[in-house]
Amino acid sequence: MSDDRGKAENSTGSSDTDDAAASAASSRPTGKRPGRRSSAAADSSAATTVAATGPSAPAKKAEKPRKENLFKRFRRFMREVIAELRKVIWPNRKQMVTYTTVVLVFVAFMVAFIFGLDLAFVKGVTWLFG
Q: Please, which residues have CB within 8 angstroms of residue 31's CB and are 6 or more apart in sequence?
């Protein structure tokens, strides 16, 4: 379907749709975190400004992004937490019982092991120093 759309755009000769498609393709996420700047658009606009005016022209300082209200940030955080929790694959009852049993057995083993080491060290120190 995208091939048909590309053919239709090229057959009409519209350069506006080609420019929009090129800008949409460049704004797709790459999976990498952006640098210190707030958006990738600021990076590309700064790069085109320097390229157009030359390296001798002074570059504009990046404006400091305004901090959102504390309550807005908290609300956005909670929405993102809920969205991430919806992505979680929750275990069913059988899996939960199995995982809980494994954890409890492991903890009981570690408690017994540490207790045995502690008892051995106490007996050794008592025997050595009387």
A: none
What's the distance, Cα to Cα, between the start and end of the chain in Å? 87
* Dihedral of the alpha carbons of 80, 83, 89, 91, in degrees to the nearest 10: 80
Structure token pair of residue 25 = 């393709």
Identify the band that residue 63 occupies on the pLDDT scale cut at 50, 70 and 90: confident
| Cα–Cα distance measured from residue 35 to residue 33, given in angstroms and rounded to the nearest whole number | 7
Q: Give the residue carrying structure tokens 């092991």.
A: 113
Task: Give per-residue pLDDT as tens, 38-49.
Answer: 555 555 555 555
85-117, pLDDT tens digit by residue? Answer: 999 998 999 999 999 999 999 999 999 999 999
91 touches 99 (CB < 8 A):
yes
pTM: 0.39
